[in-house]
Specification:
alpha/beta; Purple Acid Phosphatase, chain A, domain 2; six-stranded mixed sheet; five-stranded mixed sheet; 9 helices; 15 strands; 31% helix; 21% strand
Length: 295
């Protein structure tokens, strides 16, 4: 197997799992519903593909990483990097990755219950993330965290290290600013839309007409629905959480993120089952959605 950031996807029947975000119990439940044993073996020989964002928000990111790592090392799963995973790999502190730095995270003044990482956990997480590709592909199917963009895929195909690729393009983009008349918002959009690592892991963005509040800060950018113009083999992605119940995708694309990363808000409100926010997998080639709770 080559060292490219774009890797071959498993042959055969697959179960493609959405953004887990530290929700270890829903992940274990989903795997049981899908028919996997505790060590990830399936009686029909099916295998797993994860769309990334294993971490943050949920109660036990280290346990999720341990489980997925064991499945990958056993040859029973593949996983791509999500933007949350990438932020940890790059050392970028974000609104909801305090757990990795051993610090509590608060929402509305309330501590979100999470296992906090120590140095040994941090080193294990970083080592695992460095092994992950940024996209998986075969003739009939593609798996990416946020956006399949052929031009950016071609650039990533020639690279073997996601941190190096990110840093190279970050520097090139910064170096172009003296020749351009840009405000801070435009500069942020240049970094978002011209760095292949950013495009593939968190998708293209555009300027908003009015400021919006997202991820703990005021933003002047919004996500672009790239799938409306997508042409190619069927592409499965996460990232664009279906919190409003509206599907993301079309006949050639499908978003498998059903919002389990915010399930802690439902638990805080007293729910212990019947959650609206779920962890899902898309069965391929059946194109059947399976949730962590039977619905």
């Amino acid at each position: 197997m080559s060292c490219s950031l774009i890797q071959p996807l498993f042959d055969g029947s697959l179960d493609i799992v959405g953004d887990v975000h530290g929700e270890i119990d829903p992940l274990r439940s989903l795997l049981r519903h899908l028919g996997y044993s505790g060590d990830g073996e399936h009686p029909d020989g099916r295998r797993l593909a994860f769309v990334g964002d294993l971490t943050d928000r949920g109660p036990d990111s280290p346990a999720v990483i341990d489980l997925v790592k064991s499945l990958v090392e056993a040859g029973r799963a593949q996983c791509v990097l999500g933007n949350h995973d990438l932020n940890i790999l790059l050392g970028h502190r974000k609104h909801d990755n305090n757990w990795f730095f051993g610090e509590e995270h608060k929402e509305d003044g309330i501590v979100v219950p999470q296992i906090l990482a120590d140095e040994s956990i941090r080193q294990k997480v970083l080592a695992f993330f460095r092994t992950l590709s940024i996209a998986l592909e075969r003739d009939d199917l593609r798996v990416i965290h946020a956006c399949w963009n052929d031009d950016m895929i071609d650039i990533a195909r020639e690279s073997s290290d996601v941190v190096t690729l990110y840093d190279e393009h970050h520097g090139l983009i910064e170096g172009s600013f003296p020749d351009l008349d840009l405000d801070d918002i435009d500069k942020d959009l240049e970094h978002q839309n011209k760095n292949p690592v950013k495009v593939l892991s968190s998708g293209p963005e555009e300027r908003t007409d009015a400021p919006i509040h997202s991820a703990g800060k005021i933003r002047h950018e919004r996500r672009v629905q790239w799938w409306n113009d997508y042409e190619g083999p069927f592409s499965v992605f996460g990232h664009y959480s279906i919190l409003d119940g509206q599907p993301r995708g079309n006949d050639s694309t499908f978003c498998v993120d059903y919002g389990v990363g915010k399930r802690w808000t439902e638990r805080r409100a007293g729910k212990s089952s019947g959650f609206n926010l779920k962890l899902a997998a898309l069965r391929w080639p059946e194109r059947l959605i399976v949730f962590d709770e039977v619905v």
